[in-house]
Amino acid sequence: MKHLGLKILLVLGLFLVFDQLGGLLLDTLRDNSPDGRYHKAKYTLEHCDEDVVVIGSSRAEINYVSQIIEDSPGCLAGMPVAADRACPISGQCRREFLRGTARKVVILNIDDNDLEGGMAYEHAGFLRPFYSTHPEIRPVLDKTSKFEWLLLKSRLYAYNSSFYYLIRPYLVPGLDGKAEDKGWKPRPGTMDYDPGKKLESEPVKTPLNPEAVAAFDYMVDKFLEKDCQVFFVVSPNYGRSIGSSSAIEYLKKTSDKTGIPVFVYSADSSYITHPELYVDPEHLNIDGAQKFTRELVQQIKPYIQSSKQHSSNDEKVYKGF
Predict the structure, then answer these.
(1) How many CB atoms lie within 10 A of CB 16?
(2) 135 DSSP assignment
(3) Secondary element (H or E) of residue 216
(4) Residue with more model confidence, 74 or 30
């Protein structure tokens, strides 16, 4: 029994060494990634200090061209921009306001059904490699499983199911957008489509998920507490017109209460009936993203100019005293 116990301890010791050394190697690959998901996640968690941030699902990453926003004449010119894929709402989005960095403008992309389904905490699983160094993301990751905190003692487990995204930037550079794209993930090409396809009818409204709504409200409140100028945007999908889902109605209700502008493109015929603007039914291609971003900038410009004028007037009054 003594020899058996020693062998078990030896195996456990070797596994521990292998786990720690393997984790150290994977951390090195993560920290030196030229682009890709881990490059973006690390940048957002540790370095992001842009004045304008676009947050949302993969649509925030694909549909918004950061450079167009940054180069827009007048309202946003010269303000650096970063786009961030952040889902679920209570997951990666949370890191943006818990870092404590003040933002001037936050463009929050909300899908037309974002607040209606269950909380997909597992989607935040690729952030596991940052669990030990970034306590702000632990409350979300702890909800992915009952013993997540214990499993994450293993350095290799932290990369479970993420090896593909860790290695991909080294094998296929720029697939998730180049570093100079500032978070934007350009998707070239045009989707295959049926020319005779009719628009899908408005779906039956689904009740809001209280947990998702609470997380959303908490996030918005934090942005407002930091004096961020927030905009709600609902991106379009090809072949589907949604003008009044439960989530959209809640955005409008929140807008009435807080004054946050909301822009709904999910029923805009200049997008939802034009397949040439899409790479797949849910994501705009390069041409579509450029068109969408330019039009959105024109819509938000009056609000930002008005805010600047208001701030200027406040400053004059203050100086007058």
Answers:
(1) 13
(2) G
(3) helix 210-225
(4) 30
CATH architecture observed for domain 19-195+209-320:
3-Layer(aba) Sandwich (3.40)
Q: 10 Å Cβ neighbour count for 52? A: 24
Length of the chain: 321
Cα 20 vs. chain centroid, distance in angstroms?
A: 30
Beta bridge partners of 271: none
pLDDT for 95 beyond 50: no
How many CB atoms are closer than 10 A to CB 129?
24
Residues 6+ apart with CB under 8 A from 243: 202, 264, 266, 267
Say whether pLDDT at 162 is over 80. yes
Amino acid at residue number 177: G
Neighbours of 242 (CB within 10 A): 21
d(CA 165, CA 59): 18
In single-letter form, the type of residue at position 149 comes to: W
Cβ-based neighbour number of residue 35 at 10 Å: 21
Using only the alpha carbons of the chain, give its radius of gyration. Answer: 22
Per-residue pLDDT, averaged over 294-311, amounts to 80
- pLDDT tens for 220-249 read 998 898 888 999 999 999 999 999 899 999
Average pLDDT of 255-281? 96
